[in-house]
C-alpha cells in the first residue's frame, strides 16, 4: 500500500478481515494512532509509524495470522480503508517482491522534490 501522510495529525486506519485454516474470521486493524498491539479472540490491533510524506506500507497477513493466533492464513475476505487518506495503489501478493520484479504499474514512483 502506498500512502501519503501529509500532516502530523493525519490518521490512517486500515482493516482486513481474514479467514484462517480453522474457518474462523478474524479482523486486523493497522493504525498510526494506536500505540500498543492488542490481540483479542477475533480482532488484532497493530500500530504502524508513518512519515509526513508518501509511505510504502508492506505487511504479511499470513505472518500476522500465524503470530497472533497460531493458525494459518487462508484468504482475505474484506478490506476497509477509512476515507480520510489518499492511496496510490493497494495490491495483494504471494510474497514480497523486489522493486525490479514488479510490473510497471505496481512500482513506486516518488514525486520529484528537486524543482
Protein architecture, described:
The chain is mainly beta. The protein has one domain (2-93). Helix content is 8%, strand content 32%. The strands form 2 sheets. It has a 5-stranded mixed beta sheet. The chain has a two-stranded antiparallel sheet with strand order 1-6.
Put simply, the count of helices is 1
Provide the structure class. mainly beta
How many β-strands, per DSSP? 7
Helical content stands at under 10%
Order of strands in the sheet with most strands: 4-5-3-2-7
Element order: H for helix, E for strand: EEEEEEHE
Counted up, domains total: 1
Taken from the alpha-carbon principal axes, the silhouette is: globular
Average predicted local confidence, pLDDT: 85
Domain CFA20: 10-109
Pfam family, one: CFA20_dom
Protein name: CFA20 domain-containing protein
InterPro entries: CFA20/CFAP20DC (IPR040441), CFA20_dom (IPR007714)
What's this entry about, in short?
8% of the residues lie in helices and 32% in strands.
Question: What are its keywords?
Answer:
CFA20/CFAP20DC, mainly beta, globular, CFA20 domain-containing protein, five-stranded mixed β-sheet, two-stranded antiparallel ribbon, 115 residues, CFA20_dom
Strand and helix layout:
Blueprint: E1 2-4, E2 13-20, E3 25-31, E4 38-39, E5 43-47, E6 54-56, H1 61-69, E7 73-81
Amino acid at each position: 500500500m502506498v500512502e501519503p501522510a501529509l500532516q502530523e495529525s493525519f490518521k490512517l486506519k486500515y482493516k482486513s478481515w481474514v479467514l484462517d485454516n480453522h474457518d474462523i474470521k478474524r479482523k486486523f486493524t493497522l493504525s498510526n494512532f494506536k500505540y500498543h498491539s492488542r490481540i483479542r479472540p477475533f480482532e488484532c490491533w497493530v500500530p504502524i509509524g508513518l512519515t509526513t510524506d508518501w509511505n510504502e506500507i508492506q505487511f504479511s497477513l499470513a505472518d500476522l495470522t500465524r503470530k497472533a493466533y497460531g493458525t494459518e492464513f487462508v484468504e482475505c475476505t474484506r478490506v476497509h480503508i477509512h476515507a480520510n487518506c489518499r492511496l496510490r495503489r493497494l495490491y495483494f501478493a504471494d510474497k514480497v517482491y523486489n522493486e525490479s520484479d514488479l510490473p510497471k504499474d505496481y512500482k513506486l514512483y516518488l514525486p520529484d522534490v528537486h524543482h
